[in-house]
Amino acid sequence: MIEKDGGKLVYVSSGCVKTAEGELPSRLKLILDNLHEVIKQYHPDLVAIEQVFVNINPKSTLLLGQARGAAICAAVLNNLQVSEYTALQIKQAVVGNGHAKKEQVQEMVMRILNLTSSPSSDAADALACAICHAHGGLGLGKISTAGYRMKRGRLV
Amino acid sequence: MIEKDGGKLVYVSSGCVKTAEGELPSRLKLILDNLHEVIKQYHPDLVAIEQVFVNINPKSTLLLGQARGAAICAAVLNNLQVSEYTALQIKQAVVGNGHAKKEQVQEMVMRILNLTSSPSSDAADALACAICHAHGGLGLGKISTAGYRMKRGRLV
Q: What is the spatial distance between Cα A125 and Cα A122, in angstroms, rounded to a whole number?
């Protein structure tokens, strides 16, 4: 969760919903309930979600699809617009390189949001997705790189 | 939608939710809204859903997962218990043969529910899943086959 304050992006909150082992329906309900609570608490204006392309086994892909479906359901049930961005778009927007490593994404999320410590990898991905949307999803051009040393689109 | 009246199964309603081409979030919302309406109208006691095993391309698998996730969300949001059955279990319970063809499933669904015409293939699959649950999901043993001619688990 981030806030756009003029041209500045402000960190609000971040986290992961973890579902215990168990039956699928109750795990999906946990995702719904948790996200509903977050939405109720922070009243976001919109939601950005990573558009996944999966190259794992069909069972995991199906499971991921169901979890992602539940997350989108939580948003649309609260009448929130949902924007989707590919990992490539997100990395391009945040790091300036569509093939950046996870650590680079974490590092840039920390810098852009002025965090004192690095968020977890999953939380950083979510924050990066939000940053991507906040900057119009249009890549490095719209992100102020003042104070960052960049070389060929990479953070140095 | 079927009703269990003692040992007898009564047809209530069936159909398909079709989502037009468009953005994924609005398509998932259509599934949610449509199922919510059906649940509000008929007040089912529980929901049975086919447990899919997919052997299609990852993109379709992900899409199916998201649609299935939305359907399960509609159920759990209405506090309905969701039971999952594999196609094998369903066909075994309805036709008496886990590898029955689609037409055999449609035929048996018609007979079991005393329908005068065959439901569409998708609707028949859903009704078969409901029948499977109503009979305890335990296969042919619990289904009365009185009046049906069966041979080696097949309808003849």
A: 5
Considering only CB atoms, B73 lies closest to which of A55, A61, A73, namely A73
A46 contacts chain B (CB < 8 A)? no
Chain A hits for B66, Cβ within 8 Å: 65-66, 68-69, 72
Angle at B142 between CA B137 and CA B146, to 5 degrees: 135
* Segment (H or E) for A68: helix A58-77
Q: Would you call A84 and B24 a contact, using CB atoms and an 8 Å cutoff? A: yes
Any domain includes A148: no
Look up the pTM and report it: 0.81
Measured over the CA atoms of residue B53, residue B56, residue B62 and residue B65, the dihedral's sign is negative
Token pair in block for residue B24: 């994924």
> Which domain, by its residues, includes A36?
2-141
- Asked if A70 and A32 count as a contact pair (C-beta separation under 8 A), the reply is yes
Share of chain A above pLDDT 70, in %: 87
Helical H segments across chain B, by residue range: 24-42, 58-77, 87-94, 102-112, 121-134
Instruction: Specify if B53 maps to a domain.
Output: yes
Length of chain B: 156
Among A138, A28, A39, which residue's Cα sits nearest to residue A85?
Answer: A138
Binary contact (A69, B25; C-beta < 8 A): no
A46 — phi, psi (to 5°)? -165, 170
> Does residue B130 belong to any structural domain of this protein?
yes
Residues A58-79 have pLDDT tens digits of: 888 999 999 999 999 999 999 9
| Total domains, chain B | 1
Are B120 and B16 in contact, with CB atoms under 8 Å apart? yes
Contact A135, A93 (CB under 8 A): yes
